[in-house]
Amino acid sequence: MSDPAASVPRVARAEYVQEVLAGLDRTAGAGVDPALPLYATTFVVVDLETTGGAPDGGGITEIGAVKVRGGEELGVLATLVNPGVPIPPFITVLTGITQAMLVPAPPIEQVLPSFLEFIDDAVLVAHNAPYDVGFLKAACVKHGYRWPNPRVLDTAALARRVLTRDEVPNRKLGTLAAYFRTATQPTHRALDDAKATVDVLHGLIARLGGHRVDTVGDAIEFARAVTPTQRRKRHLAEGLPKVPGVYIFRAADDRPLYVGTSGDIATRVRSYFTAGEKRARISEMLAAAERVEAVECAHSLEAEVRELRLIAAHAPPYNRRSKYPERMVWLKLTDEAYPRLSVVRNLGPTDTAYLGPFRSKHAAELAAAGFHDAVPLRQCTHRLSRRTTMPACALAELGRCPAPCEHRISPEEYDHRAAAPFRTATTTDPQVVVDALLGRIEVLARDQRYEEAAVVRSRLAAVLRATVRMQRLVGLTGIAELAAARRAAHGGWELALVRHGRLAGAGVSPPGVHPRPTLEAIRATAETVLPGHGPVPNASAEETERILSWLERPETRLVEMSSGWASPVTGAGRFRDLLAKAENGGSHQLSTERS
Prior knowledge:
Radius of gyration: 34 Å
CATH superfamily of the largest domain: Ribonuclease H-like superfamily/Ribonuclease H
Helix content: 25-40%
CATH architecture of the largest domain: 2-Layer Sandwich
Number of strands: 15
Shape: elongated
Oligomer: single chain
């Protein structure tokens, strides 16, 4: 074989190198649309000869590359490369490349600019691609060139998916070249091997049609280690819109299996059929899925809310972190002469002193324990009378209860010392409770009773977490109607109409058009939401919190409100820093927080 460098111009002068480098700032092959059909995709098939060993920025002795599209050869780049080190004898025996052949060849830092320009806007193809790409990336890093991060297709990996053991005993390039009867046989020289790989690539592409692989993105994913179920069910991702919304995987009986949300439904659903998806429960879900339903939404907030509502309505079995409203619990103050704290699943219209909602009974009981540590609320479950007495329990003997059961305290004094601090803490200012718990933590820490101090710290965190959350919710759900807007990514405005903490309407105004007509149309067709009892009367706490997060972003603008949106000046929100310390720090960090 003649020296390829003889037919390819040597790398240009340094001035030309700088011009090429100026054009390498943009991403090259990574910009290739994954939806591009294979017949319209430009491929650069590359092969390297090296001195062996691991990629360290050098060691390349020859580069051969062929650019093809639609079966037509568009260009060839081939050159010997001076590695700057002696060639091992076994490499000379294998490739036929001698030290004398490489002495006049350019070093890799002079070859890289031409090669990077050659592969621009193309998909890089190689046999055992990690090896060749590893050497090229290392050379770019060593010599200060930016690797353009092209899309890469590995013909060896693709052959493992397309060809069976009955067809070929292995996936070596020589074996595949013989199987596909390539025009050029591999010879362990870069250009010959690259040309043989071109024919192998075309042979493999011809086999992909039977697997419903028609685009370059599909081919790259098909070459990866996807499961047979993913390969068999990947057609479920076809025809979905590239818009924000909710997607629903449904079983053969139309039962929802999994509900998700994305800013691009089509792209997100396709990801379930790639090698990156390795969750066992998702693999099980895909095996049962028969179709995917898309619900287009105006913007991300509407998609998130619809997802929550669908999960709550259908309880899909594969949504591991689903939050169901019926599992929420509340901590309320009972309505009796000597009230106590009770964990309940629902609030009644007459309940006026409560805290929540909590995601579990354990969380509610932890907060209740915090109040019991801070104020003398009774812990027994008896219904006490103003007239008759009952024997006191051990807590009264330990000084942990004022013994209202024996009438040692009047209902008025009990309300002042025990019940009123709970009402105040939940609605406005939890200062009394916070001070009491911090004082208890300080005493325990001073006595080196650190484990007990940690328990009280967790109770303080539970109290603050619940009060901060509820006061945030109440601030929004008390507003009859609120309209907000945020700039859309492609122009126009994302609009949301919120009524009593529930998303009642959503839309997007077109670019260049005043958003007011769109907002009025949303208002006219929005859901009617009536006021109700409690901090979340018309929606789940998660929905209202998603809305709050959207409204509190710096780029969101409040357009109209039926009443003011406010939080108590001395409310629980001012203890957020203390909450963060209680959740993440040690008890000694809280001893200086008392005010």
